[in-house]
Structures are given as C-alpha cells and as structure tokens.
Amino acid sequence: MQDQRNPWGAQTARSSNDEVARTFDSPADEPVVDAVQAIAEARAVPMAQVAIAWLLTKPAVAAPVVGATKPHHLAQAVTALDLGLTDQEIQTLETPYVPQEPYWY
Question: What is the pTM of this model?
Fold first, then answer.
C-alpha cells in the first residue's frame, strides 16, 4: 500500500495545477498539519488516517466524507476506524488550531 504522507508545502500533481485549492491554505494551518504529521510518523500510518481518526472522536460527525481517488485511499480510510487516538494525541492535534473565517464558495 502506498504511503500517503503530504507534509505542509508538499507538491502534488493537484496542488501544482489547482488554483482554487491553493486559496484554502493558510499559514495558521501549518502547525496543525505538523501535528498530524508527527502523530502519523510516530504511529507509522498515513496522515489521512490520523485526520479521519480525529474526526471520528467528534460526536457531531456522523460519517467523514472521504475523497478517495484510488482503491488504496479507501482501504486506508477504513483502517482509520481502528486507529483510536489517545487523549494526548487529540490534544496535540487541537491545541495549535486557530479558528478562521469560513470559506464561501
């Protein structure tokens, strides 16, 4: 299974061509992405699994929307169901978050 780690600033085929996606990046998000990356590296799992596992800790989230474009993305997303983040990991992910204005489409 291919590793899907995309640390802050990583260039992908989409990020180099998608002008709209670039408008969603904010320097305030970098510490959050760094926290996701650190937990993913410590657990030896893709960053997407950590993000999905975090979403699953939120009672208001009935089902995360996964933008899988390849079969292994879906397999990785399903594996996140069993990841189970610790309270410390959740705090590590949430502490650097800075609320931002909503994006309007």
Answer: 0.77
Q: Convert the pLDDT of each residue in 29-65 to its tens digit.
A: 889 999 999 999 999 999 999 999 999 999 988 888 8
Long-range pairs for 71-74 at CB < 8 Å and ≥24 separation? 72/1, 72/2, 73/4, 73/48
Q: Domain-by-domain residue ranges, the chain?
A: 19-94
How far is 87 from 9, CA to CA, in rounded Å?
28
Chain centroid to Cα 78, Å, comes to 14
Angle, in degrees to the nearest 10, between helices 47-55 and 30-43: 110
Distances (CA, A) of 12 to 9, 23, 57, 80, 94: 9, 15, 29, 23, 26
- In Å, how far from its chain's centre is CA 55? 9
Q: Which two tokens stand for residue 6?
A: 């995309």
In contact, 16 and 41? CB cutoff 8 Å: no
